[in-house]
TrEMBL record:
InterPro entries recorded: Ester_Hydrolysis_Enzymes, SGNH_hydro, SGNH_hydro_sf
Species the sequence originates in: Hydrogeniiclostridium mannosilyticum
Highest taxon in the source lineage: Bacteria
Protein name according to UniProt: SGNH hydrolase-type esterase domain-containing protein
Alphabetic keyword roster: Signal
Keyword Transport: no
Biased composition (Low complexity): 26-76
Residues of the signal peptide: 1-21
SGNH hydrolase-type esterase domain mapped to chain residues: 160-281
Stretches the record annotates as Disordered: 26-79
Length: 293
């Protein structure tokens, strides 16, 4: 009888254990599904991020390419103030001008005695009494052309031999009286054309003609500040039309009435147009802070 009871109890316990096992199976199943679900999300992540990764790669490639792009070229016309350049900016520059620029040439030479890098390796083609008009004349013993390496040449030939890529021109003082404002502008364009024929990749920088001191600004003379201002205005327009750069040096050396500032003039009792060292440094500073890319 006891054996029968034990057998019955054992049977009941076995059934209970079996039921317990059956009821716990879904919980185990749900636990094991969790890693499967996570793994599925993880595997989905690369699929969903793959396009984003591709886009990011494209962006990085695009950003990396930006530094290799050429800087935006400065539009032609009047140059505005820009970041001051290094001396080396003028390594490939040549300055063409009359006796006003001849003073700048001498000033640069003097400064280079203590600072060899002053205005870089800029070269100068200057001659007293030179204008666009007489610079277009054939070269001769009597012609007004600057010397280049000991030889008198046309400006076009001298620029070509210099290897310059930036050509700064300041002429007009000796053109206004014989040719008038319009004639002086025409001569300037003709001169530039001859230069570009032999140095086609040169960039042209026309510097405004600088004014006279007040005492020498005589309205009855053809060379006066009113005509000079009209000439400069037409030069600025020429630059915008032809793709040249206009460097308005006159604006920084003039007083409120448009006359050359007295302290910048070395010959106020004579011609009233040439510069002192102080005036030349103001001129140079303007050149350094008004450049084109």
């Amino acid at each position: 009888m006891k054996k029968s009871r034990f057998a019955a109890v054992a049977a009941i316990m076995a059934v209970m254990l079996f039921c317990t096992a059956c009821s716990s199976t879904p919980e185990a199943s749900s636990v094991t599904e969790t890693p499967s679900s996570t793994a599925s999300s993880a595997s989905a992540a690369p699929e969903s991020t793959s396009p984003a990764s591709s886009e990011a790669g494209s962006d990085v490639s695009s950003e990396a390419a930006e530094p290799s792009e050429s800087p935006v070229e400065t539009p032609p016309g009047t140059l505005v103030e820009s970041t001051r350049v290094e001396d080396s900016y003028f390594d490939d520059a040549v300055f063409i001008g009359d006796s006003v620029s001849l003073k700048l040439n001498r000033y640069a030479s003097e400064q280079r005695k203590s600072n060899a890098n002053f205005m870089g390796k800029a070269q100068f083609l200057t001659a007293g009494s030179m204008g666009s008009g007489n610079a277009l004349q054939p070269v001769s013993d009597e012609s007004i052309h600057p010397m280049y390496n000991g030889e008198k040449l046309s400006l076009a030939d001298s620029v070509a031999k210099s290897g310059a890529k930036k050509v700064y021109i300041m002429l007009g003082m000796n053109d206004l009286a014989p040719y008038g404002v319009d004639g002086a502008v025409e001569n300037m364009q003709k001169l530039i054309t001859t230069i570009l024929e032999k140095t086609p990749d040169a960039k042209i920088y026309i510097q405004s003609a600088t004014p006279l001191v007040k005492a020498k600004n005589i309205s009855t003379h053809k060379l006066n500040n009113t005509n000079m201002a009209a000439y400069n205005e037409k030069l600025a327009a020429l630059c915008a039309e032809q793709g040249y750069y206009f460097v308005d040096v006159a604006s920084v050396v003039s007083d409120s009435e448009g006359n050359l500032i007295q302290s910048y003039c070395s010959d106020p009792d004579n011609m009233g147009i040439h510069f002192t060292d102080e005036g030349c440094q103001v001129w140079v500073d303007y050149l350094y802070t008004h450049t084109a890319q």
